[in-house]
Amino acid sequence: MARRTAIVATGQTHHRSIRRDVNGQELIREAVTRCLEDGELTIDDIDAVVIGNMDHFEGINYVDCWSVDGSGGFMKPTIKLTTGGTTGTTLGIAGYHIVASGAFDKVLVIGWEKNSESDTTGAINTAFDPVWDRPFFAGAIAGLSVTAQSYANMYGATAKDAARVAVRDRRHACLNPYAHLRKEITIEEVLASPMLSDPVCLLDMCPRTDGACAVVYAAEGVAEKICPQPAWVLGASSRHMFSYACDADFQGGSLFSMQRACPDLYKKVGIKEPLKEIDVIEMYQPFSWAGLIWIEDMGLCGKGEGPKLVWDGVTDLGGELPINPSGGVVSTNPIGATGLIRCAEVALQIQGKAGERQVPDVNLAIATGFGGCLWTDLLAYGKKKPE
Amino acid sequence: MDRAAIIGIGQTKAGGRMKDFNYAELLYPAVVAALEDAGITIEDIDNIVTTSNDFWDGRTISSMATGDVSGAWDRNISCVEGDGTFGAFYGMCRVLSGVYGTTLVTAHSKGSESVSPYITNAAFDPIYVRSLGLDMVSACALQARRYMNRYKISEEQCALVSSKNHRNALDNPNAHLQLDLSPEDVMSSRMVCDPLKLYDCSPVSDGAVAVVIANEERTKKLGKRPAWIQAVSFCMDNYLLGDRDLAECAALTKAAKKAYETAGISDPRKEIDVAEVYDAFSYQELMWTEGLGFCDSGEAGRLAESGATRKTGDIPVNPSGGLLASHPVIAAGLIRIAEAVRQIRGEAGKMQVDKDVRTALAHGVNGVAGQSHCVWILGKE
Fold first, then answer.
1. Could you tell me which of A3, A2, A1, A8 has the C-alpha nearest to residue A217?
2. In whole angstroms, how far apart are CA A156 and each of A115, A306, B106?
């Protein structure tokens, strides 16, 4: 690595279904201000801005240019990235590479979305090929439910198993003052909630959220001066396996891109036994079933063993490997910010600043991103500087 | 900081409506050409950065259309939304970060499937400005007037730029428009938006481009004709047109200054051998040459008249014909980089400027009326 790089400051908005009190730029500014305060920085300390969202949600072209008043990018280098649901982690990975390259010492990374201004499913459908995919692709919920059906069929998992994941994340969210949905739910309530797309019910699914998140990445030598415990980036990996939804292999519901990205990341970071070595995971888990299937794809347990791991409490706060102590995506989902919130939350865990949702003694944490056409982004952060 | 170089370039011939190709099919030949040009295969590519724009492509994850043909299967990939020069910056960072040895950067645009006034209108504030009906052309017309008024730049001087670039494009096999236009032809073309006449404006083109960027180690191993990246710098001005001084390009001036500092250039007019700049409109080439420090503010009209920016002049600008001849949005800036690489290699054919090119400049723009600029300095060394 050219230069070791770390997250040194984080900030996010209080997330809601509709933030009528702010426009997009003001929403962004709220996260940026909170982030700069966290690092005791001013906007003058920032060398460059990296920003992203999904354009068709708010209907604003050239968001990098439009967002200046909120981002603080005036007369600064500013660049936009977008990869759909993975946008937030894509931004996190960009902040890391840009600082590590030596181009800038301190980079402000911003993910945001004002979902209340969008027709979420309508916009998501435009992501897909207009000739081959769009006529039958019925949005993210239906696509995900196909993976759940396939998984349930192959491994015998039940809606109750999935509900246990939603109950876990929603319980965690009550400990997170920024989370959108902060109300505990029961397995019975999940199972009785309206069916969206069999087997996925309303309470299995993530909400649509207005929110923004900002983090500052800094280079070795600068990072230690900004905060006593930087969250060092240990490695990152991305896989965009498919361009067409009709290419995807739904057999067994596995997330193929996750299966391919994880070995790449584990090799870069030197992880051999993920369940033992990883201390906390913030997973971009857009619906409860992913909390069963994708932990298998990450190699935390064997295929079909996800439900047992979850029922045994291994992934609960207080368990061996807590997943989504923040409440995760089923509690809060401002899409372009969602992946970056995963990065910010694991940084808080490493810094020991996660308040009531703190996992004790976090040395190695993983943030994941999901989006595009069943794509995966991964980032590993650690307490100790990488070799 | 480690060093990086561009070791491969590939381009398609830009054109009008290319009905036979979708985005992927449009881009694929450029990717193949870039790999062939570098003398490598896709196996030598460690990671990929695609560039695209969701509005121009009519897809909210526009990068999804071109991952396959950029060789992204089972490789690390990322996607920049904006001009190709910005995507190439990130591609360079990914090799300089020490994580990857090579990056393939791709850009495509199929403007023929879009309606430019609607797409660019969506770049304006949705509440206060959009309903005024501003689009890229009308906003740039405001900028042209402001700039021309302040510095007494004449329409004839702008027409000189357009004529020069269109005639340069006659030598560019990849150009969309190949028109032998005199300044009088430009002056007599129909008014589009006062003071911009038809030939003051770039066309909306279909086209694609790909480049391969490598770190020092891989360049030495693979690169037969590397163009070394001496500096990249970018900077963004304010958003609302009323918050900006439209007669000036402060963001470009700042980006250029930083790039020159990094590259150790003190007198750009003398030290830069050729420049490929983002001339979406004829007046913009004049403004940008001032912002790049090739002459003082307000002097670019006279610089053009002197012939200095012609292919035979001392500071040739857009020997490829620039955007006035081909403007596949998003790809346009990356094409500037590819053209600069050709000049450094001495492989620009009839476009080759009449001197030993040691240092070349490429320039890209994001947003309306040059809100955000990216400056690249490439060199033989």
1. A8
2. 35, 11, 44
**What's the DSSP call for residue A161?**
H
Residue given tokens 């001084």 in the structure block: B245
Residues A81 and A183 in one domain: no
B-chain residues near A64 (CB < 8 A): 81-82, 236, 366-367, 372
Residue of A nearest to B254 (CA): A75
Which residue from A minimizes the CA distance to B238?
A: A74
Residue A244: band (very low, low, confident or very high) from pLDDT cuts 50, 70, 90: confident
Q: Which residues of A touch B67 (CB under 8 A)?
A: 240, 243
- Identify the band that residue A326 occupies on the pLDDT scale cut at 50, 70 and 90: very high
Q: Is residue A84 within 8 angstroms of chain B, CB to CB?
A: yes
CA-based nearest residue to A6, from A223, A214, A215, A213: A223
- Domains defined along chain B, listed by start: 4-115+205-222 (3.40.47.10)
Residue A74 forms contact with B (CB below 8 Å): yes
pLDDT tens readout for residues B250-307: 999 999 999 999 999 999 999 999 999 999 999 999 999 999 999 999 999 999 999 9
In the predicted structure, residue A248 carries a pLDDT above the cut 90: no
Token readout for A73 is: 């990018």
CATH of the domain at A11: 3.40.47.10
Model confidence at B2, in pLDDT bands (50, 70, 90)? confident
Domain assignment of residue A321, given as a range: 129-205+231-382
Residues A187 and A276 in one domain: yes
